[in-house]
Amino acid sequence: MSTQLVEDAWTEVKSILTNDTTLKTYIKNVYEGYRQIPHQAFPCIILEPVSEPEEVAMHRRHIDFEITIYALIMVYNADKQIIGDANIKGIVDLVRDIKNALCKYQSLNGKCISHKFPSTEYTFESYPIRQAEISMVIELITATETGR
Fold this sequence. Notes:
The protein has three helices and six strands. By secondary structure, the protein is α+β, with helices and mostly antiparallel strands. Strands 1, 2, 3, 4, 5 and 6 form a six-stranded mixed sheet that branches.
């Protein structure tokens, strides 16, 4: 049962990010799993599962499913890499758009109790690529396997 809940939440996160009207205007792909990204695929989003710890208490199972959402851009204008403008999205703009898209659906269209973003880390390895790692925790609760 918990596997299906996790799969449903994962699929809903990908669907929301893929279909959000703001993100659709400039995101090329939403990938499942980190991979080598060709230059023509930037900007993009990568979803990566992190953990699925469970607690069983009083006939209910509490599952916090954690994923990392990687936001990646390639911007050659060094002055627009962090905060862009109307024509170029910076990494801070992309993070804001991702969080706004998901926050429109606090229950992920009924797939979870709630979700939160405990942290966001910005990383820079080589110009002109910028990356942010958004930690997202999705709270799932279901009956235990006994059905009580």
